[in-house]
Amino acid sequence: MPTDSRDSILQLTAAGVSVLIDAKGGQLPAIVHWGAGLPALTARQAETLVGASVPVTSSNTVDLPPRPGLLPGHHSGWTGRPGLRGSFGGIGWSPKFRTQTVALNGTPVTAFTSSGPGLLEISALDDADRLRLDLTLELLPGGLLRSRAQLTNLCDEKYTVEDLALSFPIPSEATELLDFAGNHNYERIPQRGTLRTGTHLRENRKGRTGADSAYILHAGTPGFGFGHGEVWAVHTAWSGNHQHYAERVFTGEQLLGGGELLLPGEIRLGRGDSYTSPWIYASYGTGLDEVAHRFHTHVRSRSPQVSAERPVTLNVWEAVYFGHDEDKLIDLAERAAAIGVERYVLDDGWFGSRRDDTSGLGDWVVSPDVWPTGLHPLVDRVHALGMQFGLWFEPEMANPDSDVARAHPEWIMAARTEWPVESRHQQVLNLGIPEAYEHVKKHILALLAEYPIDYIKWDHNRDLIEAGNQLEAGRPGVHAQTLAFYALLEEIRSLHPELEIESCSSGGARVDLGVLEHTDRVWVSDSIDPHDRQTMLRWTTQLLPPEYMGSHIASGRSHTTGRRHDLAFRAGTAIFGHLGVEWDLATASEEELNSLRRWIAFYKQERSLLLAGDVVRMDGHDSSILVHGVVSRNRSRAIFATAALDSLYPDPAGRLKLRGLDPDATYRVEPVFPGTTPSGLQPPAWWGQPTAAGQAIRPTSLRGGAQDDVIFPGGSFHGSVLAKVGVASPRIHPDQVVLYRITKIG
Ligand code: GLA
């Protein structure tokens, strides 16, 4: 039964964010305010505010003031992007929805309601009673807003959904945009621009989130940074084709939006069928750090929770690639355990005929050629050494030269009988076909039953091109594939609740909040070069807290860039994520192993802070100096790092300033160097003399290095002094990092 929603205005407030929603008079809801927290309004004040937000109409426009809702409709005179595009074969293409019911946390709303965080549900029918629209808008306890829509066909004629996107209004002062681009080996690279009249549209047709994903689309006041400026942002939580956009229409209304990107004819609803959009998240804050913290709070509240005691991992990929050899890999496990590694991951190459990337992919049976007695000797040794065991899979893929592709060519995704262009010698298995889904599931479950596997690295190494369903004459299948992927993850997790799963996709091409509902960490990038990782980690934390980012220390020469870096820089970069090692330890010197052991010990000692604290990224005048850190929730401890990515100019760098500490507390700031000191270190006077035995740090030490941890006594400073005045920085060579351990002393 419809309830009378004539007077429905809602105010939701949480963690310094307020949303005022106008759902009056049977109209689809429109957000009147999304941004800074407001005091609880009275019904009269809310009514007045809604009235006062109605703009005058522009010259020569329709006689209704613009009121772009969550799902803007053409019938209201809105000539920007409509929220819903679709039709019954060309008819019913401009539905006029009337709200039937409004409920907050399950209770019908008929009058002004003010609350804390809450879940708002609006159900509407189009004027011809052919479509039902269920909109959900939720303000989460951390101040993050999210929305999704479900559209149901109520009649016999098929309805084709062409596009369904949800949008959030932003005020006119938000004129600067920030989103991301990137490619394999260099993901989440920021790009800025100006929001002008028109649409800034980021479309993804790769069938996976993408290395060039827009990731999060921000709009803010000009010059916004990590700690300043008002910022509004949207993120589409979906691992298939998707879109993000910022739109400004000629009358000045501005929106940020997102949704799935549907291929032609992909969603056709028969009677009673529904299409559900992904969640579109919206985060507001003063500065990018606050926007990020709202995402982090949400990710950290999910169940099961990821512990900050993340095990130090060794992944064998850059150590051996496809060169699987039982003795070599057991030897690597022993070397890893000896330096403190806690999880060992066997990467690509253990199955079928997979001796290189041209064959065997999709045949999830341990290869007798390289593992004559199965994986048992390795798995047993890994566990006997006290480490967890992890195994690599790429379940959605097959090489054409594989048993599965030979037996079931019809399972390959294709828009016609001819298969799509290959990528890394592989094609995509259509998990939307129930038999293909069951086949993959059966093989993964058989391996999980045979071996005590603690962790899966779940890879996905190509874009989906012409990804149709051969059994349906090549109809688009990306939507079904994405849902099947999520369902498979959930089935496996429900049977193995202790299993952790990593989302990897040619490095970091599947990083989004959709996949993070089903997985426990992401592989940030196939490039482990710390110079580039500094930037990638900095921006991956815009969505994810550090404990979700796979962050490895590789060998001295980067396999993807050819650059060489000191261990101190590699490790001092990697410890700000879920630490791992990806290096053939048999080739490491004793000195390197000693240093590595010390870095791992330092990480273990500090990981409850490094991986559970609040991320702080400082704004600086020099883009080649990155200052960042983590501060414990109670502000009693912090670890900060300064990374120099280039020669300094001016030299030395300006004062070190730190945000996020208690401004009224006093802190001891100690420069710490686990295992090695950076090259070119020239400490400022306030550091004092280092305390480690035998460490005479020469002012212009060319080659850093030490066998023991070096700790300088540093100094004690007020939190507000560190934030506002700052302290002198050291000189260091380019591609070096300095760590500061910060402890509250009063
Ligand atoms: C992808 C991953 C790598 C590695 C290889 C194996 O590129 O990102 O880490 O697992 O596949 O083929």
Describe the structure.
18% of the residues lie in helices and 30% in strands. 52% of the residues are buried. It has twelve helices and 40 strands. It is an alpha+beta fold and 746 residues long. Helix 9 (530-540) runs parallel beside helix 10. Bound molecules: alpha-D-galactopyranose.
Fraction in helix: 10-25%
Low-confidence stretches: none
Overall residue-averaged pLDDT value: 95
Number of helical segments with 4 or more residues: 12
Strand content: 25-35%
How would you classify the helix and strand content by structural class? alpha+beta
Gross morphology is globular
Largest sheet: 11 strands, antiparallel
Calculate Rg over CA atoms. 27 Å
Distance between the termini: 61 Å
| Ligand roster | alpha-D-galactopyranose
Q: How many strands? A: 40
Provide key terms for this protein:
40 strands, 746 residues, binds alpha-D-galactopyranose, globular, 8-stranded parallel barrel, 30% strand, single chain
Secondary-structure blueprint:
Elements: E1 9-14, E2 17-22, E3 30-36, H1 43-52, E4 84-87, E5 97-104, E6 107-108, E7 113-115, E8 118-126, E9 131-139, E10 145-153, E11 159-170, E12 176-183, E13 186-194, E14 198-204, E15 217-220, E16 230-236, E17 242-248, E18 254-260, E19 267-269, E20 274-276, E21 280-286, H2 287-300, E22 313-315, H3 317-320, H4 326-338, E23 343-346, H5 376-384, E24 388-393, E25 397-398, H6 403-407, E26 427-428, H7 434-450, E27 455-458, E28 468-469, E29 475-476, H8 478-495, E30 500-503, E31 521-523, H9 530-540, E32 549-554, H10 567-574, E33 578-582, H11 590-610, E34 614-617, E35 625-631, E36 637-644, E37 666-673, E38 710-711, E39 715-718, H12 719-724, E40 736-744
Parallel strand pairs: 1-7, 22-23, 22-33, 23-24, 24-27, 27-30, 30-31, 31-32, 32-33
Antiparallel strand pairs: 1-2, 2-3, 4-11, 5-6, 5-8, 8-9, 9-10, 10-20, 10-21, 11-18, 11-19, 12-13, 12-15, 14-17, 15-16, 16-21, 17-18, 25-26, 28-29, 34-35, 35-36, 36-40, 37-38, 37-39, 37-40
Helix pairs in contact: 4-5, 9-10, 10-11
Bound molecules: alpha-D-galactopyranose (GLA).
Alpha-D-galactopyranose (GLA) is lined by residues 317, 347-348, 392, 459, 461, 504, 506-507, 523, 526.
